[in-house]
Design a protein that fits this description.
369 residues, 10 strands, two-stranded parallel ribbon, single chain, Leucine-rich repeat, LRR (right-handed beta-alpha superhelix), little secondary structure
Length: 369
């Protein structure tokens, strides 16, 4: 039955109550692009042999209610994009779903922008390996109970909660992230999230943390002292736009393999103190706008920072208006183009309060902005 009603854009009502589906194994893309479909009766569907439900209701924009209480999903292995872009769906009860054999949940609820209530209380996710963008752009979700989730086999959680704009609290205390390698953008643009406890997160195998908290502009405190970052190579924009953040604990960060720190703390406008004395930046090639618009920053410990020849530091301290002292004694620059506008808008910083033996840095600071 794959692609059976593909892009029936004008179809508004469909009664399949007399369908005999007892031998069907594939429902991939069964109703995708049925953008006008507002009434769908699947009450007699027998799905006990179905293994693939990928994109089953993809872009069913007009569906506001969907009763799947009779669905038997015990043999399904793929639910990726199953409800992708069901923009009118408000409530979804999947408490009867047996997902013990599902491997892929990528984009499962992505862009369900009206979804405010979802019941996943019986989800057994023991075999799922991919949860990329699973709840991305579920902009109306206020609460999300994932307390029963088993994530021990999950490898990818990138953008999992991206743009969950109304989500104020989320409990991930049961999450086992020991095999996860990618969590970039996982909480990006969760603009209502004011507090999050990640003390149980095991990040030993993670390589990508870029944009992890980007745009979390309600976050006040963040303690990541338990994070093991020894394998991380990308921290691009990790905290960018966290403009309410007052305290940030990165005391145990191991950054020896990180290559990209561009925009890492940009627009952390409320942060006044940042101790990065433990940072090893020997392999970093880009620090562009790393502290850009950290307007409240008065203390910044970069005493162990080293820069290699060619490291990009354009606008690195752009508009750090409150910064009065900087220790750049281990900075090495060979090309002024790579540090242009490095101190743009640092109106409280004076040349005599910058510790450096690098003449290129001194000349760059000497420019009048």
């Amino acid at each position: 039955m794959s692609c059976m009603f593909l892009c029936c854009k004008s179809l508004s009502s469909l009664d399949l109550s007399n369908f005999n589906t007892q031998n069907v194994t594939d429902m991939w893309g069964m109703f995708p692009g049925c953008k006008s479909l507002s009434n769908l009766n699947l009450s007699n569907f027998n799905t006990q042999k179905v293994t693939n439900m990928n994109k089953m209701f993809w872009e069913c924009h007009s569906l506001s209610n969907l009763n799947l209480s009779n669905f038997n999903t015990q043999n399904v292995t793929d639910m990726s994009s199953m409800f992708f872009d069901c923009t009118s769906l408000i409530n979804l009860d999947l408490s009867n779903f047996d997902v013990q054999n599902v491997i892929d949940m990528t984009d499962m609820f992505k862009s369900c922008i009206s979804l405010s209530n979802i019941n996943l209380s019986n989800f057994n996710t023991q075999n799922v390996t991919n949860m990329t963008r699973m709840f991305s752009a579920c902009e109306s979700l206020i609460n999300l109970d994932l307390s029963n989730f088993n994530t021990e086999k999950v490898i990818n959680m990138a953008f999992m909660f991206n743009r969950c704009k109304c989500l104020a609290k989320i409990n991930l205390s049961n999450f086992n992230t020991q095999n996860v390698t990618d969590i970039h953008g996982i909480f990006k643009s969760c603009i209502s999230l004011s507090n999050i406890n990640l003390s149980n997160f095991n990040t030993q195998n993670v390589t990508k943390m870029s944009e992890m908290f980007s745009g979390c502009n309600s976050l006040l405190n963040l303690d990541l002292s338990n994070f093991n970052t020894q394998n991380v190579t990308d921290m691009y924009g990790m905290f960018s736009g966290c403009n309410s953040l007052l305290n940030l604990n990165l005391s145990n960060f191991n950054t020896q393999n990180v290559e990209n720190m561009e925009d890492m703390f940009s627009e952390c406008k409320s942060l006044s103190n940042l101790n990065l004395s433990n940072f090893n930046t020997q392999n970093v090639y880009c620090m562009r706008r790393m502290f850009s618009e950290c307007k409240s920053l008065t203390k910044l410990n970069l005493s162990n920072f080293t820069t290699r020849n060619g490291t990009i530091m354009i606008r690195m301290f752009n508009k750090c208006e409150s910064l009065t002292n900087l220790d750049l004694s281990n900075f090495n620059t060979q090309d002024a183009l790579h540090i242009s506008d490095m101190f743009f808008g640092c109106k409280s910083l004076k040349i005599e309060n910058i510790i450096t033996n690098d003449n290129i840095i001194k000349r760059e600071f000497g420019k009048k902005y």
